[in-house]
Amino acid sequence: MKLNKNIKIFTNYFLGPVLFMWLSYSIYTQVERQPNLERSWQQIRGSFGNSMVVNLVLVVMLMMINWSIEAIKWKISVRQIQRVSFFTAFKAILSGTSFSVTTPNRVGEYIGRVLYMNEGNRLKAISLTIAGSMSQLLVTLFMGWIGLIVLKDPVENSQVLSGVWMQVMIYGVFFALLVLTVFYFRLSLIIKLVDKLPAIRKYVWLIKDLEGFNATLMGQLLSLSAVRFLVFIIQYYLLFRLFGVEVSWWQGLWAVSVSFLVMAVIPTIALFTDLSLRGQVSLKLLGLFSSNSLGISLAAVSIWFINLIIPALAGSLLILGIKRIFKNNNKDDEGT
Fold this sequence. Notes:
By secondary structure, this protein is mainly α.
C-alpha cells in the first residue's frame, strides 16, 4: 500500500510536471521558429473581428451535441439494470468528466457516472459503462488505422517516423482492432473466461449483465460513436479555419484521426500532460500540411478547453450536490 502511495506521489508531483514542462517547451520552440509568426498572430486576431468568430460559437454548440450523444450512449448501455432519464445521464456524463481530468487516461469518469445509479447497481454499471466505451475506442482505432495508411507517405517523407515504425504501427493497430472487435461483439466470451478462473469466479455477477449486449445494441453504440467522432472532426476543422490553419478537410480528417489514435494508446498521467501531449501530436501531424504552428497549437488548446475543461467545471458543480444521490430511496429513475 505504501509503495503504491509513493508511486502515485512520484507520478503526480514529479513525473507529471516534468513531462508537462518538457512537452510545453518543445511546443513553444516549434511555434517560436514558425516563419511569419507575427503575420499569423495578426490573422488570428483578425478572425475574431469578422464572421469567422461564428466558428467558435459552433464549436461550443457541437460540444453540447458531443456530450449529449455520449449521454444517450450511456443511457442505453445501463438500461438493462436501471432506467435513467436523458437529463440524469447527461449529469452523470459531466460528473464523470470532472473526475476524469485528474486520473490517468480519464479512467475516473466511470466513478463519476455510476454515482448516479441506485445502490446495488453501481458496481454492475461499471462493466456496462466500459463495454459502452469500447464502441468509441473501436471507431477511434479504425479511423486512426485508415489515417495511418493514408498518411504513410507524407509521414515517412517528412521523417516524423521511419518506414519500419510506420509498418509496425499499421499492423499493430490492425491486430488490436481485430482483437477488440471480436471481444466487442462476443462479450459473452469474457463472462465465460471469468467463470472458469477460480480466483475471480465469485465476481462474475459484476459482469453478468454484459450478456444483454446483443448485436442490435452494439450496432447502436457503434453508430452513435461514429457520429460523435464526426462531431470531433468538424470541431477541429472549424477551429483550423478560425486560426488560419490552411488544411483541406481531407488532410484534417486523417491527421486528426491519427492524433486521436495516438492519444488513445499513449497513457497520460496528469491533466496538463494531456494538454501538452495533445499539442505536440497535433503539431507533428498537422505540420505535414501547414506551417502555421501557432494556429495548430491554439486549435488543440481550444478543443481541450471547450470539450474537457468546461464540461468538467460544470460536472464539479453537480458533484457538490452528491449527497442527494446517496440518499436514493431505491426508487428507479423511470425517465425516458
